[in-house]
Amino acid sequence: MTKLSLAKSLGFIAIAISSCATYAETNEDPMVLREIMQGMQLSMQQIEQGIAEKDWDLVSQNAFAIADHPAPPLLEKLRIFAYINTDLGEFKELDKQTHGSAKELAELALREDKAQLQATFTHLQESCVQCHEEFRAEFQAYFYEQN
Q1: For 94, what's the count of Cα atoms within 13 Å in the CB-facing half-sphere?
Q2: Could you tell me the sign of the dihedral formed by the alpha carbons of 47, 49, 51, 55, in that order?
Q3: How confident is the model at residue 140 (pLDDT cuts 50, 70, 90)?
């Protein structure tokens, strides 16, 4: 990468972060991520219900919903990534594990592979919990309690 293209990239990032800050100041709760996470929590509850009732369609639909959950808008993503900063690799790895486990769970449910289903669901739960333990408290304090 040339010095000029690096400078342009850094300039773009600075403008985007500045725009994010302005956006945050003009909105009470600008975090779409909160809605996404609440939807994923509901999907996890539906998966548990589906497993208990052996409703494999319910399990697969909700596991696919987690695997393919929407992403926050670009400016919000930039704010999140700027905050996470040096831990971005770990954050992305945990997100990748969550998506992968959810997709695998959905496929197992479609095949009604009960032998692997519970272990995969446990792995999905663990990836969620690990991410929450690593990022949730500080993230909430930074984005919600400073207002």
Answers
A1: 16
A2: negative
A3: confident
Residue 123, pLDDT > 50, answer: yes
> Could you say which of 2.40.30.10, 1.20.120.10, 1.10.3720.10, 3.40.50.300 is the CATH number of the domain covering 32-73+83-143?
1.20.120.10
124, two tokens: 């999905």
**DSSP structure string for 46-86:** HHHHHHHHT-HHHHHHHHHHHHTPPPPPHHHHHHHHHHHGG
Cα–chain center distance at 52 = 25
- Look up the pTM and report it: 0.77
